[in-house]
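Subject: design request, 142 residues
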């Protein structure tokens, strides 16, 4: 099970953002896909970082950075897995080609590719829990 937790053990809280690579000059195509198709909002990069290219996006608590990388190669295995409410409806209305997977029981998920060939997993988000609902110990959220 691993070592016992001590006061020196880091207390991880989540992932701040994920980054995908794009070829240099691909920023507008990224804006069209991540903003126009997936519905993310572009957020400004700090000026010193903006000079390097790339684009930052967010939707709610989900942050996605795309960075321009010379010698770009699409990520075909490594990928972010993004939670979305209404996954099936989104795929039907967006026109995005999805590869559905039933390999994980009790989950609704698929893989899509961005215009650069990067693999992205989309997972149906569990229903939101109302703050008025009591917390049940031992739940997995899935």
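Subject: RE: design request

Done. Sequence follows.
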């Amino acid at each position: 099970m691993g070592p016992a937790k001590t006061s020196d053990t880091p207390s991880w809280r989540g992932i701040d953002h994920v980054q995908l690579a794009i070829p240099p000059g691909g920023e507008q195509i990224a804006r069209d896909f991540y903003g126009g198709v997936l519905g993310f909002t572009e957020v400004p990069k700090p000026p010193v970082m903006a000079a390097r290219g790339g684009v930052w996006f967010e939707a709610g608590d989900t942050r996605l950075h795309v960075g321009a990388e010379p010698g770009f190669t699409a990520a075909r295995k490594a990928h972010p897995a993004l939670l979305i409410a209404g996954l099936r409806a989104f795929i039907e209305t967006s026109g995005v080609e999805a590869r559905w997977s039933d390999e994980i029981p009790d989950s609704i998920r698929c893989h899509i590719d961005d215009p650069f060939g990067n693999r992205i997993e989309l997972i149906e988000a569990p229903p939101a829990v109302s703050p008025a609902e009591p917390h049940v110990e031992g739940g997995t959220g899935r």
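DSSP finds three helices and eight strands in the chain.
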